[in-house]
Write a structure and sequence with these properties.
Radius of gyration: 17 Å
Helix content: 10-25%
Distance between the termini: 34 Å
Strand content: 25-35%
Number of strands: 16
Shape: globular
Structural class: mainly beta
Order of helices and strands: EHHEEEEEEEEEEEEEEHE
């Protein structure tokens, strides 16, 4: 699979969508705020054919930000059955655990940001706990998923555990556009090990550890709900 990081920085139509679409309003309504901050946006692409599973993970351990008010809006571009699209462990955002960043060797993702490629298919901070074996003990977890169609939006907390199923053959490509939004409590941090590209560094900015992202609107763009 290909993950394009911060495509809105290079594609005017996505920049316009990020600033003016209902996605920010959805995030504001769910977070209970009037403004949200752009922390990360990603375009996902998987070719037709064999679909590799995306391992269970939570987003917040991959991004150099910290705070409770994190929300992802995942926007579907192609029809996809529940068996190979987002699967979510209901309530896992309340476990108060930061899990190790890890993507299995078989499911390595190559992420593109500008002209630089970032391989995020390795463990990072070995001091963090590994994600539980959710598929092995699936009866112990409340796992939810949906069939999706183009234009459907799945919104979920940035701390929630989620994954996507695999399939030996799927006849169509799968595309999605996702944005991670933050509220007023979100602060900048530098996590050890590998993570997705750091937005501050991508934009050439300098932020002190622990700064509120709201203090840096030139880097973390504020978007008001409507």
């Amino acid at each position: 699979g290909i993950t394009d990081q911060f495509p809105s920085m290079r594609i005017p139509e996505l920049d316009d969508f990020l600033r003016n679409s209902p996605a920010a309003t959805i995030a504001c309504n769910l977070l209970g705020t009037t403004t949200v901050y752009h922390l990360l946006d990603q375009a996902f692409y998987k070719e037709a054919g064999r679909i590799l599973a995306t391992p269970w993970h939570s987003d917040h351990s991959y991004v150099n930000i910290e705070g409770k008010s994190q929300l992802r809006t995942w926007i579907c571009c192609d029809p996809s059955p529940a068996t190979i699209t987002l699967r979510i462990v209901r309530g896992s955002h309340r476990w108060n655990v930061t899990y190790r960043n890890y993507v299995s060797n078989e499911s390595d993702l190559v992420a593109k940001s500008g002209e630089k490629f970032f391989n995020i298919g390795r463990a990072s901070d070995n001091h963090l706990p590994v994600v539980p074996e959710i598929d092995r003990y699936s009866e112990s977890f409340d796992i939810i998923s949906w069939d999706v169609s183009p234009g459907d939006v799945v919104a979920f907390d940035g701390h929630i555990l989620h994954a996507a199923g695999g399939l030996d053959h799927h006849p169509d490509k799968r595309r999605a556009y996702a944005i991670i939004w933050g509220g007023d409590d979100i602060r900048y941090t530098e996590r050890p090990g590998m993570s997705v590209p750091d937005l501050a560094k991508v934009k050439g900015g300098h932020i002190k550890e622990g700064d509120l992202v709201s203090l840096h609107p030139d880097i973390f763009v504020p978007v008001a709900g409507s």
